[in-house]
Amino acid sequence: MVAVIYARISSDKQKETSIEAQIKKCKSYAEQKGYTVLKNYIDRYKTATTDNRPQFQQMIKDSRKKTFDRVIVYKLDRFSRNTLDKELYKDVLKRNGVKVESACENIPDDSSGILLEAVLGGVNAWYSADLSEKVKRNMDLNAEKCLSNGGYTPLGYKIVNKRYVIDENTAPIVQEIFKKYASGITIKEICDSLNERQLKTTKGAAFNKCSLATMLKNRKYLGIYIYDGKEIPGGMPQIIDEDLFNKVAERLKLNKAAPGRARAKAEYLLTTKLFCGYCKTMMIGHSSNQISKKGVIFNYYRCKNSGRKKPCKKKMVSKDYIEDIVVHECQKLLTPQNIRRIAKEVVKIAESYEDNSEFNRLEGLLKEAQKAKENQMASLRVCSDDMVREMIFNDLSKIGAEIKELEKQLEIEEARRQKISESSIIKFLTNLAKCDIKDNVVYRRSLIRIFVNKIFLYDDKFTIIFNTGEDEVTISDSLLTGIEKGLEDKSLCLSTVSGHHGE
Predict the structure, then answer these.
(1) Which class for 72: exposed (0-12), middle (13-18), buried (19 or more C-beta within 10 A)?
(2) pLDDT tens per residue across all 503 residues of the chain
(3) Domain housing 43
(4) Contact between 171 and 156 (Cβ < 8 Å)
(5) 187 and 323 assigned to the same domain
(6) Rounded CA gap, 369 and 367, in Å?
(7) Do the domain assignments include residue 261?
(8) 332 and 314 in a common domain
(9) How far apart are CA 106 and CA 102, in angstroms?
(10) In sequence order, what are the beta bridge partners of 147?
(11) Strand 163-166 and strand 157-160: pairing?
(12) Do 96 and 41 fall into the same domain?
């Protein structure tokens, strides 16, 4: 077997496994498997949530040449953190005869591997959503007290004990910007003036038209604390008086171009799983250019071979209707017996492929950071030079922040290891079986990923083939009639509709 290695880091922060460490682990894995490594593809400081990864895209392109059979990654999140993108790119590679393998997770490329990845992905999403809710509650409590919730601090303010206070050094710059714009000076001219003086935004960047326009609209400068769409007048110190702010607002209004209508992105949960029953081609998600009087955008699936000058005559199908039926059929499979069986199988697979390298790496880095802190503290105790003491204090501050970050990462990694238990998976699957999942995209996505292998859709029926060994289900006549009736009720043509891809 011939393999290539894909490695990626999204930042230069120490919490991420270095490129060198990723490649070393991947090479070791390749040696164990008896693979020949052809090439390394490396993206530095690129996020896995976007397609803006030149080496990744080159690897996908090179797979068409059929010069390699495997792509080895350190962990699957190095390949992609976006579930849909991961499935799409894995499908492209599969069609080119290439499989993706994780050096750390070692998820098998068979039915058990599909089940393991799907269940663990669902459990992770569930825990993430739960953690997000807890974080949101803490942020809500902070907001009630008008405290900072972290993140971006507007120019002119600084945070002291979680409270917004006026920054005496930068607040005059904010006042200058508002006064100049109100007097008729353009945003570009103001930017040029600020940049000539080498002044910076709170992010340490040069001023530009976008950042300045955003600043001029910021109602926090009126002393209004803003969080989650709610405003608390007097919740923070005021930098700009109301008259000046209103003058600026009036001028901005006069210069503002008419905004384009924003479209909400729909998530097509059946992508890579839904196929045309007639020509066996993958069906893809589209959003119609037709918008109802209430502003509703019609979302649907259509065969890639259908439409103008295309041979397949398969009718389109409403996204919501078919997803609702598929999710309902999946939920019916979550009997107590099946839940226990799946939980036992997943834990068995997970235990056989458990890898503690990331936990050990983070633990090692934490020990190093703690040792460095001890050394600096010892130096501080014997140092009498004020300048040197200040340097040591700065180093201690950085080390302290590093220790906090590493402790946080260790906590997450430990939680990840603990939640792969039979009881936690049973709890997750039982929750999936009982809850109302109509509007819960996390649960809907999890059900489809766990159970659905393929769906073949005809005009009068469709067949679901499951991952878990259950007999395939064919749904016909009445339900499909309902689906198409739903489209007709929405006045969406069933033959050809112009639209754009849903991604």
Answers:
(1) buried
(2) 899 999 988 654 444 567 888 898 899 989 988 999 999 999 886 554 556 688 999 999 999 999 999 999 987 766 765 555 666 787 788 888 998 888 876 666 665 666 666 776 666 666 656 656 666 777 788 888 898 887 678 999 999 988 999 999 999 999 999 999 999 999 999 999 999 998 988 877 789 888 898 899 999 999 999 887 788 999 999 999 999 999 999 988 877 644 444 445 678 889 888 999 899 888 988 887 665 555 567 889 999 888 777 889 888 888 988 998 888 888 888 889 888 888 887 777 666 655 566 677 778 888 988 999 899 888 888 888 888 888 888 888 888 888 887 887 777 666 655 556 788 788 888 888 887 777 677 778 888 888 888 899 888 888 888 876 555 666 554 334 443 333 334 333 222 223 333 43
(3) 2-106
(4) yes
(5) no
(6) 5
(7) no
(8) yes
(9) 5
(10) 163
(11) antiparallel
(12) yes
Boundary (domain end) residue, out of 50, 85, 106: 106
Does a structural domain hold residue 6? yes
Residue 158 three-state SS: strand
Question: ∠ CA(358), CA(360), CA(361), 5° rounding?
Answer: 65
DSSP states of 271-317 as a string?
A: TTTEEETTT-PBEEEEEEEEE-TT-PEEEEEEETTBSTT-SB-PPPE
Within a domain: 338: yes
Domain boundary among 220, 255, 290: 255
Q: Tokens at residue 269, please?
A: 């949960």
Report the alpha-carbon distance of residue 443 to residue 125 in Å, rounded. Answer: 9
Same domain, 227 and 166: yes
Residues 135 and 151 in one domain: no
Regarding whether 411 and 427 lie in a shared domain, the answer is no
Tell me how far CA of residue 428 lies from CA of 76, 161, 289, 327, 434, in angstroms.
Answer: 22, 39, 38, 16, 10
* Rounded Cα gap, residues 436 and 331, in angstroms: 10
Q: Amino acid identity of 324? A: D
Q: In this structure, are residues 16 and 38 in contact, taking their beta carbons and an 8 Å threshold?
A: no
The residue type of 133 is E
Amino acid making up residue 41: Y
- pTM, entire model: 0.50
